[in-house]
Amino acid sequence: MAVVTGPARLRRDQAPLRAPAARRPPLRVVAPQRRPPRPARRSGVGLALAVVLVALLAVAGAQAFLVQGQVRLAHLQQQLGSAQGRQRDLEAQVARLEDPAAVVGQAQQQGLSVPQQVTDLPLVTPSSTVPTSGGRAGSGTTGHGAAGTGR
Description:
By secondary structure, the chain is mainly alpha-helical. Helix content is 46%, strand content 0%.
């Protein structure tokens, strides 16, 4: 074992010797330099953000308008379907009521009877009518206006 003695070992409290440093000027506090603001860049970014925000709001408004229209369209389609079903039911009911057998059956239920003989009446035209009182027969007038007033 070797014993260390003396000058080969440095103490912690002693610093190694340095070469003398060049003398520096003392430090001083300086005021910060004022730079002119960059309004063009800041306003450009602000303008771009405003345009994006307005575009997003416009898209959201348009989307809400379209959804509202789709809801209204669905409601109208539902009403149309129910109205078409009702129309089909009414047309079927009219067809049943217009059926001659159904008409005869209802007439018999109300106490009417089927005639034994059916007589067709002759066709009557307006020019061959007989006047009822004071008119001219066969004149072809249709009864519009007063007689003898020139109308």
